[in-house]
Amino acid sequence: ETGVTQTPRHLVMGMTNKKSLKCEQHLGHNAMYWYKQSAKKPLELMFVYNFKEQTENNSVPSRFSPECPNSSHLFLHLHTLQPEDSALYLCASSQSGGSYEQYFGPGTRLTVT
Amino acid sequence: RKEVEQDPGPFNVPEGATVAFNCTYSNSASQSFFWYRQDCRKEPKLLMSVYSSGNEDGRFTAQLNRASQYISLLIRDSKLSDSATYLCAVRGGATNKLIFGTGTLLAVQP
Questions:
Q1: What's the CA gap between B68 and A27, in Å, rounded?
Q2: Cβ separation of A99 and B49 shorter than 8 Å?
Q3: Tell me: the pLDDT tens digits for B16-71?
Q4: Paired sense of beta strands A103-104 and A87-94, if any
Q5: pLDDT tens for the 113 residues of chain A, in order
Q6: Closest CA to B39 of B74, B4, B85
Q7: How many Cβ atoms sit within 10 Å of the Cβ of residue B105?
């Protein structure tokens, strides 16, 4: 399935590095999301974009910086992360309205050393 | 009280068994309800949306009880391949934000 793609699939970075996660959706949706999934915790919503505008920032630390240049692409820029930021980062997309069904990408498994 | 709660399990059932999961939600204004399936180290995949009248897809039946604020998922004739974590998700009010439960782990035994 290639509805929502994410790169890279795995990332190991040091605390002083800067890296970016990329997400692209091919479903014609107009809303995109970043989630964090840590072990034994529910999916945590980080950011929501509707029609390229950020409509939700779930008290996410500033070391995570999202960017949405258009309705099909979403980035998450990372800098000076902490080891506790190690997790699976999932991108999703949906229509804004209608069924609101969200479809997820395969995720980026991030390890901060 | 958590916004969305699920029994984490694990539910260990033999092949062919019928198993049911519940998911409770706290926001009475919630509008949309979903069940997702997540395999180990993979992304959640939408299993089915839950409609007010209930809906069925093959061996899977989802129901909504607004009065008691819970949704349920029934799996009949369990297969080994049904082993996964089942996540419920709830959308509240005029927003496209989904709140997810922690998931219920199902292990179907041969």
A1: 35
A2: yes
A3: 999 999 999 999 888 899 999 999 989 999 999 998 888 999 999 999 999 999 99
A4: antiparallel
A5: 579 999 999 999 999 899 999 999 999 999 999 999 998 788 999 999 998 888 888 889 999 999 999 999 999 999 999 999 999 999 999 988 767 899 999 999 999 99
A6: B85
A7: 18
- Coarse DSSP helix, strand, coil percentages of chain B, rounded to the nearest 5 percent: 5, 55, 40
Size of interface A-B (CB pairs under 8 A): 48
Query: Whats the size of chain B, residue-wise?
Result: 110
Can you say whether the dihedral through the CA atoms of A38, A44, A49, A55 is positive or negative? Answer: negative
**What is the 3-state secondary structure of A54-83?**
EEEECCCCCCEEEEEEECCEEEEEEECCCH
Nearest CB to B96: which of A100, A104, A106? A100
Q: Which of B32, B87, B102 sits opposite A100 (nearest CB)?
A: B32
Cα–Cα distance for residue pair A32/A37, rounded to 1 Å = 16
Residue of A33, A96, A101 to mutate, interface with B, max B Cβ within 10 Å: A101
Using the beta-carbon criterion (under 8 Å), do A42 and B43 form an inter-chain contact?
Answer: no
Whether omega before A42 lies within 30 degrees of 0, making that bond cis, reads no
Contact B109, B79 (CB under 8 A): no
Question: What is the rounded CA–CA span in Å between residue B67 and residue B37?
Answer: 26
Residues of chain A with C-beta less than 8 angstroms from the C-beta of B42: 106-107
